[in-house]
Amino acid sequence: MKSHTLHLPKILACEADRIRSFGPEYVPYADQIRDLATRLDTGRFHLAVLGQFKRGKSTLINALLGEALLPSSVIPLTAVPTLISHGERRCVRVRFQGDREDEVVARDSIPELHQKLLGYVSEEFNPHNEQGVLQVEVTHPAALLAQGVVLIDTPGIGSIHQHNTEMTLNFLAQCDAALFLVSADPPITNVEVEFLHTIRDAVAKVFFVLNKVDYLTDEETETALSFFKRALRERAGIEGQVSVFPVSAKQGLAAATSGDADLWDSSGMAAVSEHLIGFLAAEKNAVLEDAVRK
Fold first, then answer.
1. How open is the CA angle 90-93-97, to the nearest 5 degrees?
2. Of 149, 177, 144, which Cα lies nearest the Cα of 292?
């Protein structure tokens, strides 16, 4: 098995070349397979942040990055996937559909990069993705990303923008694992339960996060956690022991930007970050291989 695993990237690369030879219409599929080969060979692990709109996905990622880089809003915002990988310098690359050349912006200024992202990933400035953005790729020096993980901010499901849900569903094939966010305002919905049925078969590993617990008392948090775990077992068909991380991504971001270690811990983000790092060290390669095989 180990020997076969070592050769799997080469097998996939050869398969990509064979499929490419079938004709121009097969090139996108060949490119996808070659990308899988590269990810397996380099250990680049795709961790998507999924959930209904306005659950706090972008804020959670910003907390993990340690700064407010990704746009967030009180209205449905993210319109296209944003992939954040490790790099010594902050850089934004916008990839377009068709033959249009990529647009690259390298800046140390967070406000400038934030504004550039807003122009391409938001429904307000890019409605129905009229600019034809395929995806946005960001490099960032965050420590978590140095573990080989690529964080992916996805369009929220269940908003009035149906194409956002469709884009997220179409993107699941590129995800190796996922952080699935819910919050207590409201509790888990039928839309989220149906979405969980979909990702359960499409994504190799799912972590569950209950966000916005700063609005709850300790007793209310325990009630919400119990309700969510029961819904995962009885409604979404999640088997085995269900672990859910209660967090305040908003407080976590405030803690990260101010360097407040106590607030970082009490926000719940310390537990999420430590768990992810432990998972990446112990299980990343096995889950990545399983995802690539799927």
1. 165
2. 177
